[in-house]
Amino acid sequence: MCLNFEIISHTIQDFLSSLRFPVGISDLTGLEFAYALSRWIRMKEITEAQASLVENAFAEDTRSGLFRRLSISTKYYRQTQKWISSRKTALRTLDALHLACCFGAGMEIVICDEVLETSAAVLGVPCRFVADMEAN
What we know:
Blueprint: H1 10-18, E1 23-26, H2 27-42, H3 48-63, E2 67-70, H4 74-86, H5 93-105, E3 109-111, H6 114-123, E4 127-129
Helix pairs in contact: 2-3, 4-5
């Protein structure tokens, strides 16, 4: 499974190896994954053939049960709007929606973004921060 071609660290690899399956991912995650592949092709960071390999591996991982897809229901949009309207955090819209999906599904969100980690703590969303020590 490859989540990011930009930086693959031992910290992240160790974390991924420690996961228990299935891992919950929202429909938004699938959409953002498709966007990332498209962007990397446009930026000439990967080839079309490489993108197809990764896309097929992601689809196979989903079919095999490694991922549990979480549909984004209206209640998650409402929760997202409530949090953003509270003005307690610097959450961006889609980050807030990711948090709402995990919160609503009773799942811990795993992130590498310190701002999102802080927002999750403020909102009471269980969060695991995985720092990429090699990126610093």
